[in-house]
Amino acid sequence: MFGRARHWIVFCSAEHLFFYTNEMNNTIVVYASRHGTTKEYARKLLKLLDGNVDLCSLDERANSMPDLSVYNTIVIGGSIHYGKNSKLVLSFVEDNMELLKTKRLGLFVTSHFDGEKAMDQLRNAYPRELLERALVVNYFDGELLYPKMNFIEKLVAKLVLKADEIQPIISKPKIMGFANKLNE
Fold first, then answer.
1. Is 141 in a helix, a strand, or coil?
2. Which residues of 128-162 are buried (b: 16+ CB within 10 A; e: fewer)?
């Protein structure tokens, strides 16, 4: 695409100075995590993805985002609570829809459910046009972190989920498969 010419892109954030070339995959993992599970999956992706990979927590930086145009791959992760994706993720997607349509995409959610119920939540978590053009779309097993939950969340979790669904599960094969598809 660019031949043998090497093009450097430089940009600054509040914390870092980044140097990128177009010869390497530049990825940003943008996520929102209510209790920490989605953050853990984002950190795992940071280690598994090839090229330059940055993390951006919408919980911490929703109003001061890095320049997304320098990335050729954007991974977006959110957590499902009460059947819906994080409002921060929904707002990010809405605000950046046109740019996202031009990028390599990976989309994921964390969910306390699996199978068809989790797939339904995933399909409802992102706009159909992004789901259709993403390189990889998947849900990861959520976990209930009771110390981080408020009283109502604990009560609802116990009422809605069976005892065997309350156990924390982090699926290494799923996240490795997700990363491998983006590394192709």
1. strand
2. eebeeebebbbbbbbbbeeeeeeeebeeeeeeeee
Q: Which residues contact 88 (CB under 8 A, 6 or more apart)?
A: 32, 58, 59, 62, 78
Q: Which residue has tokens 């530049």?
A: 26
pTM: 0.73
The fold for domain 24-183 equals Rossmann fold (3.40.50)
In the chain, domain spans: 24-183
Cβ proximity of 31 and 37 under 8 Å = no
Q: In a 3-state reduction of DSSP, which class is residue 27?
A: strand
Q: What is the mean pLDDT of residues 30-44?
A: 86
Q: How far is CA 85 from the centre of its chain?
A: 11
